[in-house]
Structures are given as C-alpha cells and as structure tokens.
Amino acid sequence: MARHLTLVPAPDLSPDAVRAALDGTTPLGVLPSGPPAVVEAARSALRPEEPLEVGADLVVVTSGSTGRGRAVLLSAAALRASASATHARLGGPGTWLLTLPVSAIAGLQVLCRSVLAGTRPERLAKGEPLAAAVRRMPVGRRYTSLVPTQLRRFLDEEPDGLRSFDAILVGGAATDPALLDRARASGVSVVTTYGMTETAGGCVYDGQPLDGVRVRVTDGVELSGPTLALGYRLDPAATEAAFAGGWFRTRDAGTLDADGRLTVTGRLDDVVITGGVNVAPAAVEATLREHPAVADAVVFGRPDATWGQRVVAAVVPVPGATPDLPALREWVTARLGGPAAPRQLHVLDGLPLLHTGKPDRRAVAALTPEV
C-alpha cells in the first residue's frame, strides 16, 4: 500500500510526531514558517498528494540559499545512525536545548536525538534569556546547536549560559576561527559541524567524520555512510546526479590532511573571479567580521566591465560604528590580498535570514542596488 506524507507546520512539530516518523508509523513532511510564498514553495516541493518513495520517513526542504529548495528524503535508519554517532562522539546522550527552527535539519535533529535518547528537549522561546532556558534543563549532560550568529550574540550577552553546556554544536554557516577561539578562551565547549540535509545534518565534527562516515575530496568534498539521504523527492535525475555510487557530491571545496581531517574552503559554485583571480566569499566574510566596526557580513560577486566580476560586501555595523569602504578594503587587502578587497559596500541594519537561520544571499543581493 502506498504511503503519503503528513505535512506538519514547523511550530506544531512535536516529539511525539517525530517518534511516529522514526517508528515508521507516520511519514512526515515539515513545512517551514514564513511568508505564504515560502510555505507554498515548500508544499510544492513536498508534494503530499503523490505516493512517498519507499524507505523515506521524514522529508525536509532545504533552504534554497542559491535557488529553489529541494525536498530531501530521509530514512529513520539514517536519522538514528546520525543521532547515535553524535552522542557517541559527544560523550553520551543528554538533554538538548532547541534554539533553531525544526523545519531545518539542525533543529529537527535536536528533536530526533532527544526522542531516540528518551529525553525531553527544552525550547528557547523567542527573546528569552539563555539562562532561563538552561535553568529548566535537568541535571546531567546538556547540549545545544547554534548557528554562528547566535554563538556571537550569546558570547556578548550571556557567556555563563553557554558555559552550562557540555557541548555546543556550531554549524549552518562557515564559523569564523576568531569567533571559535574567543568562545573556547571563554570556557565554552564548541564543536564545529559540517554536513547538510542530505547527510541527516552534521556528519563531520571538528574536521573528523563521525563513526561510519567516509569523506573524500575529488573535484569537491564527497560524503558517504549510513547517514546519507535516499535522494530528492520525485526527482530521480537529480538524485542520480548527486548520490551516484553511494557518495553525495556536496559542491563544497575542501582538503583532507594526512590525519583525515577535513577543511572546507568554500563553495565550488560560489567563487568570485575578479581580474582573473579566484576569490572565496567565505574567506572575505570571515575577514570582514574580524574588523572592529563589523558585526556581520555577506560577500558576493557582481558583473563588472573592467574586472569581469567585482567583490561586493554587505555588512552589519557594530552599534555606534560606521564602516567605510576604504578602511575595509585596506583591512582585507592586508590579510587576503588586493583582489579579495570589496569594491562595493552596502551597510545594512541586519541580514535577512532563511528559515534555517542562514543568511539569505539572494535577499541580500536584492537589498543592495547596482552602482
């Protein structure tokens, strides 16, 4: 008998619903919160009216940061493998604090890990102090997952709350080394994670693959192992292209050292070629965030008659600061070289975010007019 997805809006997703999906009772598709167009696009990707592919138990729509999001087919086995390997790496099961939207894999995995560990996740309410949520958590091992923007904010406002956790997984976007150093110097136990919806979330922690996960670098980073998704909903061609041979091709650039430690250096399709030089936006963003006047940054390329492409930066200033292009160009040039220095600057009050908590690069570009 054909199975069909039950669609659940992210705010209504409960541990019991996740448990039913992991037991194979009720396959779920998670609808993100947001404007009607976002919800409708997710519904269109999930296609609840069509029979569900064999073996799928949870279907999650990717953020679509560079285009339309895809519905990723996840099996209960992959989610269980991910949760088990995560707890083994961190030192055992514990109680999780949910701070991220459950429509994204990082937040959804907090629910999955909690269900599989037999614990009840605590939730951080919007605008609630971190310390208040921590006080509701039982004694024992405590974990949470954050995106870098949250880590930076809590380090500024509530470092004691961060020190209450046995481990804090940080992923969802490239994390600046300076931010990680600052957190660790403050006594915060941060663990960097690398993965995506197609790998049931983070599968490489602090550069080392979780148990059972394999990593190789060919034209880009490729991942394999028990946490891999089955593919994309009703899109066998895209599934074959991305998952052929049991390896998921990530479209990320990276290197493996002699000890098998992975370093991700940026997106293969996100390079700005300016004056014949390849510039990685992630490296420029990290350098800009180290400037004392910059709180956050997004970098992208735009067509340029002289350079082919020019580097464009959208920055959020530190309160009371006024970043200017000459100063930021000098700052980046001294650290990454002249080609990486932005030739266009836009100052924003804040960065628009996707439902995953990642910066919405397309929306940032729309907010920054051509000059």
Automatic annotation (TrEMBL):
Pfam family, one: AMP-binding_C
Boundaries of every AMP-dependent synthetase/ligase domain copy: 59-208
Xref: InterPro entries: AMP-bd_C, AMP-bd_C_sf, AMP-dep_synth/lig_dom, ANL_N_sf, ATP-dep_AMP-bd_enzyme
GO molecular function, one term: acid-thiol ligase activity
All residue ranges annotated as the AMP-binding enzyme C-terminal domain in the record: 284-358
Keyword Glycosyltransferase: no
Record-given protein name: O-succinylbenzoic acid--CoA ligase
Record organism: Blastococcus mobilis
Keywords in alphabetical order: Ligase
Protein's UniProt keywords contain Ligase: yes
